[in-house]
Structure formats: C-alpha cells, structure tokens
Amino acid sequence: MAIFSKICGPKKHCDVDALENTIQLAVEIAREDREGRKIGTIFVVSDEKEVLKRSHPLILDPLHGHPENKKRICDPDMRETVKELAQLDGAFIVSGNGIVISATRYINASADRLNLPLGLGSRHVAAASITRETDAVAVVVSESSVVRIFNEGKLVAEIIPEIWLFGDKSFKISGPTEENTVADLRIVSIKKPD
Questions:
Q1: Phi–psi pair at 69, nearest 5 degrees
Q2: CB under 8 Å to 183, separation ≥6 — which residues?
Q3: Please, are residues 74 and 17 in contact by the beta-carbon 8 Å criterion?
Q4: What band does 175 get if pLDDT is binned at 50, 70 and 90?
Q5: Rounded percentage of the chain residues whose pLDDT exceeds 90
Q6: Does 154 have pLDDT greater than 80?
Q7: 153 pLDDT more than 50
Q8: Whole-number Å distance between alpha carbons of 13 and 194
C-alpha cells in the first residue's frame, strides 16, 4: 500500500514491504484479542543496529538463535509467533528487510523535547523517542485498538482498525490532516505539503 510509504516518506535501508507487513500485523493485533484481553506492543522498523544500541532485553530473547529465514515478518508462522509474544512486555525490533530480529526489548527513552498529545503512555513515548534518535519508524499497538505510527519523533499517522468504534474526537494527531480508507481501515495522517 503506497499510503504507508507516503506517510513515513522514503526511509534509508527500509524496505516498503517490511514496513507494510509490520503495519498490517499491528492492525491484526489491534483487532484481535488474546485470551479475552487487548494487547499493546511496539514494533521498531529499520536502523536496527542503532535501535539495538538504545535498547536492552527485558528477559531472555525468545527469538535469539533462530534462523533468519524463519523470522521474516511476512511468514505466517512468524506472524502467529509475534502475536503470542506480544503478550509479553517489550518491543519488537524489525530489520529494514523484514526480519524480526529481537523481541521483549526495553527501549531507552527520554521524553525531553517530545511534543506528544496528552493521554499517550510510555509505549508512545518510547516510540517517539527512538524514532527521534534513529532512522527507524515505530508502530505502536495501543490497548485501545488504535495503531499509531511515529517517524522522526512525531506522531505521523493513526489507524483505526474498527472504524465504527471511534468518532473523530479519539484522534491525537494535531494540525492539518488527510484521511484515507484502505479496505476497512481508516487512516488519518499529517498532511504532507504538495
């Protein structure tokens, strides 16, 4: 979907398919629940070396030591594994070419100089902080079923997977916006200058 590359702009060393597959997986997690409860998580895509330097494992990494060909974000088995691991605390680090290289990562975040809307919690602060300090894009699944995308330290898009659940007042994005609908997703993003 060209909409996601338009929202985030061209990212050095980030395959558009890797970003799209990650966003699609985030939307699936937002729509589904696990054992009767909503799940929240973070995906940090691209610039993985710098992201790994600015994070550390919360527990022994359940993905460590597995072959890369089994950890592709587009692989159906890996997607189900990620959905299960999303129940644990921490972020997923996804390489620019779509390999889920680490799970359960604590992102070293600083709220200094971040300008986030009120009501967003620590996942969002971590996402904004890591994208401000690296060339990564962060995709946050909120327990409220909203998927938010951060780039360059800013909230750049919100995806409402369940359109009928939310009115316009639930959006946190400020400033001029544009809205797109892809399938049954409602995507509101910062309007890019023409």
A1: -65, -15
A2: none
A3: yes
A4: confident
A5: 55
A6: yes
A7: yes
A8: 25
pLDDT of res. 7: 63
Confidence of residue 162 (pLDDT cuts 50, 70, 90): low
Residues 120-143 pLDDT 10s: 889 999 999 999 999 999 999 998
- Res. 164 pLDDT band, cuts 50 70 90: very low
Domain segments of the chain as ranges:
2-156
CATH number of the 2-156 domain: 3.40.1700.10
Other CB atoms within a 10 A radius of the CB of residue 71 amount to 21
Judge contact between 141 and 147, C-beta under 8 A: yes
Q: How far apart are CA 122 and CA 111, in angstroms?
A: 9
Q: Give the angle subtended at the CA of 39 by the CAs of 119 and 161, to the nearest 5°.
A: 75
Residue carrying structure tokens 């889920």: 100
**Cβ–Cβ under 8 Å, residues 47 and 133:** no
3-state secondary structure string, the chain? CHHHHHHHCCCCCCCHHHHHHHHHHHHHHHHCCECCECCCEEEEECCHHHHHHCEEECCCCCCCCCCHHHCECCCHHHHHHHHHHCCCCCEEEECCCCEEEEEEEEECCCCCCCCCCCCCCHHHHHHHHHHHHCCCEEEEECCCCCEEEEECCEEEEEEECCHHHCCHHHCCCCCCEEEEEECCEEEEEECCCC
